[in-house]
Amino acid sequence: NRIQMSITQFYRSS
Amino acid sequence: MLELRLIQGSLLKKVLEAIKDLVTEANFDCSATGFSLQAMDSSHVALVALLLRSEGFDHYRCDRNLSMGINLNNMSKMLRCAGPEDIITIKGDDGTDTVTFMFESQKQDKISDFEMKLMDIDSEHLGIPDAEYQAIVRMPSAEFARICKDLGSIGDTVVISVTKEGVKFFTRGDVGSANIVCRQNTSVDKPEDSTVIEMNEPVSLTFALRYMNSFTKATTLSEVVTISLSSELPVVVEYKIAEMGYIRFYLAPKIED
After folding, report:
1. Which residue from A4, A7, A14 is facing B250, i.e. has the nearest CB?
2. B28: contact with A, CB 8 A cutoff
3. According to the 3-state scheme, what is the secondary structure of B111-139?
4. Cβ-nearest to B206 among A2, A9, A12
5. B38 membership: H or E segment, kind and range
6. Are A13 and B126 spatial neighbours (Cβ–Cβ below 8 Å)?
7. Of the candidates B211, B161, B187, the residue with the CA atom closest to the CA atom of residue B44
8. CA distances, B117 to each of B59, B138, B179 (Å)
9. What is the mean pLDDT of each run of 10 residues along chain B (257 residues)?
10. What value, to the nearest 5°, has the Cα angle with vertex B245 and ends B127 and B169?
């Protein structure tokens, strides 16, 4: 089973 | 004061059609650099970054940085009222809560003004650091769209793998599985028809096809799509907008639980 990562787990608020 | 005149107004129409289903509301930012947007889809799985550089406009006036909160569905409704050959001018003013889209026919014999209400959008701006990608695939955008559509009829996710042999798209669903391999192919007269693979290291990542299929709505903007992949990073699917900039879609991978 694969879980969907979220964009905010990779890129932080600037 | 903001005044951006785009001779090839159809570009803006195509940009809206490409992103309006992924993102419903977003802030368009206007600065000396250009007209840009960064927004995530509602589930924060995908992100779209748009840049239309100021040099690409016939006339570009932006006295100071301005952010305009826009419902993209409403903007798309208005832009659909512009003819395919129309010149589009975006006009705005500090302190007002509207933006005006002016459409001029090529012969200048019909001029339409559409005023749209702006909205306050509290959006998070993400910093996307430059990354070295393990593999970069350039291929005809129509071919990529075809692959995503075909695989989407079989499964929900696509595994994109790049090796020395080429780029492989794989899916599996209730009815069976599908595997499409595109090999490097530069021996054609038209460079836009080539598939070019730059690979530093083999890479394999899994993505939701629903989002990939949504990105391919930008196919009309560019004959070529660039897919940049690194393990542990979102994929970047980029469509260059001739002479003006780009639309980049970032999609977070699905990882093993």
Report:
1. A7
2. no
3. EEEEEEECCCCCCCCEECCCCCCCEEEEE
4. A2
5. strand B34-40
6. yes
7. B211
8. 23, 39, 47
9. 95 97 96 96 97 97 94 97 97 90 96 97 90 96 98 98 96 97 87 93 98 98 97 96 95 94
10. 75
